[in-house]
Description:
single chain, mainly beta, 4-stranded antiparallel β-sheet, 318 residues
Amino acid sequence: MRKALGAAALGCGIFFSAGVCAAEILPEAGTIPAAMVQRLLILDACRAGNRIVAVADHGYIVLSDDGGKSWRRAKAPSAPLLTAVDFRDSKIGLAVGHDTTILGTDDGGETWTQRFSDPKAQGPLLDVAFLSGTLAVAVGSYGAYYESADAGKTWASRKITADDKHFNSIVNLGEGRLMIFGEAGTILASGDEGKTWTPVASPYQGSFFGAVVASDGAIVTYGMRGHIFRSADKGKSWHGVDNASNASLLGSERLADGSLVLAGAAGTALVSRDNGVSFQPIDTHTTRTLVKPLPGAGTTVLLLGEAGPREAALAPRR
């Protein structure tokens, strides 16, 4: 969940139910009991090959090698709340969180080491992304921007804007093009893998929490109060997408068949079969906050968030 500061665990007006954060200590080895998994507050997840790697409250990193049916704890140093994770390939990955913490792995998430930390910065990192080769970038609160040229082993900070708006998400559009989405309608664009950044005219003055690139190259961004915007011209112009829900949208995924799935507060999940031109609701059977969708088995999507993972069926294509 790549959000700004504020309420409960992360802020941005998204409150988590009391008692959701794992009060118990997860076992260091072996399968995590299902009841404990359902009490985990998962904030982000991604695939490392066939493995799912998720970051959670209490600095936990958990792994699943069977599509989310069972989970175990990775070996990682003590860390504060972790907020985002990304992998360059099936082996090399990075996780970021509060206290400007950056953890790295070279073995598919089995073991992690601390690569960087700066508690005096007094703010979390909220997203991390591998760009190309050994280049990686982490962004976060108050305009935090850190870059690494050696696949995350060492990091340097840089100021890329004059203000201190929170950066909630960085998206790799391909061909050296990047976009940052953040607080108060912040959109920044780079055409040279982050060497230079320019502001983009924003269609909305509320916070954006992320974006996903559709199969046709369109960019779909989303955020507070269920707002969704789509650009078919690399961010030059944006058009609002109808959404009957006003629940904030927090995470996204493009599935193998090109479907786009968004997930958010109050158990909200949406799917688009037309590259983000329109979205339809997914029945999730929960009101808990969902932060990250991943491909599930068959015609399902795996939704992770406030109460661990859950599968939801996607309606057949028409």
